[in-house]
Specification:
Blueprint: E1 4-15, E2 26-42, E3 51-55, E4 60-63, H1 72-84, E5 92-98, H2 108-122, H3 130-145, H4 151-158, E6 162-164, E7 171-172, E8 179-185, H5 192-205, H6 207-230, H7 233-249, H8 255-266, E9 271-274, E10 282-287, H9 292-301, E11 306-312
Parallel strand pairs: 3-5
Antiparallel strand pairs: 1-2, 2-5, 2-6, 3-4, 6-7, 8-10, 8-11, 9-10
Helix pairs in contact: 1-2, 1-3, 2-3, 2-4, 3-4, 5-6, 6-7
């Protein structure tokens, strides 16, 4: 039986994570090499609202209605039905798979949320605009992360590089020349919810220190936008290093991430930093693609479990 197939990419944050929660800008890009795939099949003989969810990656095979109402999968279904104004949904089966590592800073939960929103709506013939997909998937993301910034579901919902700032219209990234980004998995599961709540707790205890750090990250991000527009790789790499130092100062790095960041730098990367929530997960390095293989090899020797090379293509300015 032919089903409706939906895919959504991963993402990585280039600059601005954590500070973005406090109103500063952040830069993020989709990573198309990694993705969530949902295939939804009709069950012509099934009853209304009889929906089976099969997610082999997490060992789930259940009827949607048997999941807690606070489960992200149920929340995605609920927000789509509410948005479309329906109370009865045709019987179907959803199979969910993903090549995005879980808890790694690459937006696995947001990619699933966006894919679910698109699958549940498109199965009914409703093709939602990217902004609506982004808004609905944010409601699902709050189940995973409590008070997420909204950047993950935005970059994945639009599938474009974005400049994201709370309560401001999304801007799309302008890039003067192609930029190669190497992503390496530390093998340590990231703890986004713990990282975000920990930063908030420390911010509440010492607002002056943390506001200064957030402001510095915001300045770095603005400078990075200029470097991306002009194609100044060396400057961009130095800014990446500065951003990582700030993330260390707010307490979201990890010894394994620091090791990989230093390894990338010492093997020819222009710059490197952790990406995403931190406390594990992935790091990114800005590299010359001609040196990709040797840097990847060095990172694996230092303990990286996986590496991925992605490119930010130039845009017309």
């Amino acid at each position: 039986m032919t089903g409706l197939k939906i895919t959504s990419p991963a993402k990585t944050i280039l600059f601005g994570e954590h500070a973005v929660v406090y109103g500063y800008p952040a830069i993020a890009i989709p990573v198309s090499q990694l993705k969530t795939t949902i295939t939804i099949y009709p069950n012509p003989l099934g009853k209304s609202n009889d929906i089976t969810i099969i997610a082999p990656d997490i060992g789930l095979h259940k009827n949607l209605t048997s999941l807690p109402k606070t489960h992200p999968f149920f929340t995605a279904f609920d927000v789509v039905c509410h948005h479309l104004g329906i109370t009865s949904y045709p019987s179907c089966t959803l199979k969910i798979t993903s090549t995005i590592p879980i808890a790694s800073g690459l937006g696995s939960s947001a990619s699933i949320a966006v894919s679910l929103i698109k699958a549940f709506s498109q199965f009914l013939g409703a093709v939602l605009p990217p902004q609506t997909i982004t808004d609905l998937s944010y409601q699902v993301e709050t189940i995973y992360h409590g008070t997420p910034s909204g950047i993950d579901n935005t970059v994945i919902g639009f599938e474009k590089g974005v400049i994201f700032q709370k309560e401001k219209k999304v801007q799309f990234l302008e890039v003067g020349k192609p930029v190669s980004i190497l992503i390496a998995n530390s093998g340590v599961h990231g703890k986004t919810k713990e990282a975000v709540s920990g930063v908030r707790k420390r911010w509440e205890q010492d607002k002056t220190k943390y506001e200064t750090l957030f402001e510095k990250i915001g300045t770095i991000t603005q400078q990075a936008l200029d470097s991306l527009k002009t194609g100044h790789e060396i400057k961009l790499g130095l800014l990446m290093n500065e951003n990582h130092a700030c993330l260390q100062s707010i307490g979201v790095s990890h010894p394994k991430l620091d090791l990989l960041v230093n390894t990338a730098r010492s093997n020819g990367a222009f710059g490197a930093k952790l990406c995403g929530g931190g406390l594990g997960g992935n790091m990114i390095a800005l590299i010359n693609p001609d040196h990709s293989e040797e840097i990847q090899q060095a990172l694996k020797q230092a303990g990286a479990t996986q590496t991925y090379l992605t490119k930010i293509e130039s845009t017309s300015l």
